[in-house]
Amino acid sequence: MANGSITDNTLEWPSWTEITDALTLSDYNTMIVVLGTTLLGIAAGVVGTFAYLRKRAMVGDALSHATLPGIAIMFMLVGDKHLPALLFGAAVTGILGVLSVIGLRSFSRIKEDAAIGIVLSVFFGAGMVLVSLVQQMNTGSPSGLDRFIYGKAAGMIKQDAMFIGITATIVLLGVILFFKELRIICFDQQFAAAQGWPVVLIDLVMMGLVVLTTVVGLQAVGLILVVALLIIPAAAARFWTDELRGMTIIAGMLGALSGYFGSTFSALLPRLPTGAVIVLCAGFFFFLSMFFAPRRGIFANLIRRYSLSRKIAHQNLLRSLAEIEERFGEGIRAPFDTLLAYRSWSVTELRRLLKLASRRHEVTVDTDYKSGLTRSGRTEAVRILRNHRLWEMYLIKHAAIAPSHVDRDADQIEHILSPEIVDELERALAHERQIPPSPHLQEPAV
Amino acid sequence: MESSISSKPIDKTRVTDHDADTPVSIHDMTVAYHRKPVLWDIDYAAPEGRLIGIIGPNGAGKSTLIKACLDLVPKASGSVCFYGQPYKKQRHLVGYVPQRESIDWDFPASALDVVTMGRYGHLPWCVPPGRKHKEIAMRALSQVGMADYAKRQINKLSGGQQQRVFLARALAQDAQIYFMDEPFAGVDAATEAAIVALLNELKAKGKTVLVVHHDLQTVPAYFDDVVLLNMRVVACGPTSKIFTEENLQKTYGGRLTLLVEAAEAVARGGQR
Predict the structure, then answer these.
(1) How far apart (Å, rounded) are the C-alpha atoms in residues A181 and B126?
(2) Delimiting residues of CATH 1.10.3470.10 domain(s) in chain A
(3) What is the distance between the alpha carbons of residues B108 and A192, in angstroms, rounded to a whole number?
(4) What is the ipTM of this complex?
(5) What is the model's pLDDT at position A7?
(6) Can you give the pLDDT at residue A406?
(7) Closest chain A residue to B112 measured between Cα atoms?
């Protein structure tokens, strides 16, 4: 970026009242635009969920690019005045594009990604040629077809918003009505077909909803970016839930939020292209979801991994103390150096672990860092030691791992043993409630 | 005219009729992918109430056989009937367990959701599964020992547990005839035992089960009947008679390692 661009004041920042006016939809035109893009976001998020799960999301991209020749042809025939005609043309060539992808995939050996690339670029190329012909025909006056390519939500009128509203209603009704059918073809197409569900017909219903959403979304977001509204909210929603109904609802909400904020921002900064801002909003929600979603998010994963490694370290400390007690008698105060030699932990690490364990009242630490188990700590330590020994025995007996190697292998897995597996181990090894002796003791000392 | 009829010899080894008492009868079926035949002229009648192993080398067309029976791949010629009727009319009698790898297990669904899909075939368009169907699905999950995992997201299940969920889904279909595509592939010992128990349970209820199976060692123990397949039906019938070294040699051709395996299996089978 050039240094001067900051001072180059082409972007005028809106005043506070302008911002609140836009966000609360007090201006009629803004309201139309925001309402339209929000509804579009809902429709795209909801139907996008199924396209995404059916792994057909990119077909939406071929579809949207393939709408351009249709728009241009209808423009030549009827002119710019008649929007439904333009959208009809868009739908026709868009569907042709989808059929071409399906045809290429089924009747030649071209894979889907290549088929999409071919169809997308060829149809878009044809569209660009036709658009330039249109522009040469009405010399001087710009055709305004650009808005279909890049999107221009600001120009949205009541009629456009109504189209989108009707589309959103159809999409919601369709998805509610055919939820079961869409679910089964997205999950397991073969099983669905074996049960007699007409997979092609259900696919057509789904693609029909995608076509509808894409075509009415063209003016708002533009054909280059409209696919983003199908994919991004759905992909983001997946982070928040493991349940299809929930995912559909969340995707619809994220789509709505993207549409709402995107169009409000671009209403405030009229030089920014609406479609791009909406997509950036969607992208923002995606990153938010990817990082911060509970359970499936990246941070949740990191935290889980961190707390597991902390738990493992803590359990290792307790086990070491239990082993020391096993050798020297209950209630022994283990000197720091003895404990340090037990495992490959550093001085600072061990000190930290002792501090943490004493905070949990499982270990008491003296001023000279001698340490010992409390009563509750001992109960826990004995349980851990027992699991460890059970697992060692199991590995030796059933997995044929040499006793000299078993400790390390047992170490890695025992911390994640579920109570059910421990029960099973007990049964398999017929050790009732007692600590099996260490297998290492049976080995001659090295 | 008369002479021409009498001059045509009738091939008595072929299943010429689709018998209404036969669970699955395959007649003259040929299947081709990209003009390359995968199955040639298959004739087979599955006997009722038996566990039938479909055995053959990789690429022998075992999965294709199942898929062609269930109208999932087009047949170049021939026909398949279930109790004398085409599949279209008998779907409710047929349960299907596809290969576990055929789907994406990251799909947002719980084990119970998946098993409930087994009930979809009993539901008309646009009607969601009600409580009755969920109860049937729950029972099917218990039958495979997975009741505790009903709410578990399916990608958090182990491979063996996923396979059991697939079996439960087929059980929820409440069928007479079951097709299972490699249910034993890549499962743990516990699941293998659970599947075997389930197969025997199904047999005890008089169901007919056809299972694509890879492990020759376990064939004599698991299956009453075998279909030895390598593009054609090399041999079929009761395991004790058909699962012989000679037939396996015919099925597996020159594949030396497999032959050794097979010979071992036969030797072990003979001791039983």
Answers:
(1) 7
(2) 16-293
(3) 17
(4) 0.86
(5) 45
(6) 64
(7) A243
Pick from A179, A196, A244: CB nearest B121: A196
* Residue B134 contacts A, CB cutoff 8 Å: no
Q: Do B110 and A238 touch (CB under 8 A)?
A: no
Over chain B, what is the mean pLDDT?
A: 86
Residue B1 banded pLDDT, cuts 50, 70, 90: very low
Is B110's CB within 8 Å of A243's CB?
Answer: yes
Of the two residues A227 and B20, the one the predictor is more confident about is A227
Task: Record the tokens describing residue A366, joined without a space.
Answer: 């003296």
Interface touch A192/B108, C-beta < 8 Å: no
Average pLDDT over residues B111-136: 94
Q: What are A105's two structure tokens?
A: 């995939």
**What is d(CA A443, CA A396) in angstroms, rounded to the nearest whole number?**
13
Domain topology for A16-293? ABC transporter involved in vitamin B12 uptake, BtuC (1.10.3470)
Backbone φ and ψ for B55, nearest 5 degrees, come out as -120, 140
Q: Is the CB of A356 inside 8 Å of chain B's CB atoms?
A: no
Q: Report chain B residues whose CB lies below 8 A from the CB of A191.
A: 96, 98, 117, 169
Mean pLDDT, residues B119-139:
94
Chain B contact for A428, CB < 8 A? Answer: no
Higher-confidence position of B245 and B95: B95
Topology of domain A301-442, CATH: Arc Repressor Mutant, subunit A (1.10.10)
Instruction: Give ranges for CATH 1.10.10.10 in chain A.
Output: 301-442
| Least confident among A85-89, A147-151, A438-442 | A438-442
Q: Does residue B127 lie within any of the structural domains?
A: yes
Q: Of B268, B270, B242, B272, which is closest to residue B56 (Cα–Cα)?
A: B242
Q: Is residue B59 part of a domain?
A: yes
CATH number at residue B154: 3.40.50.300
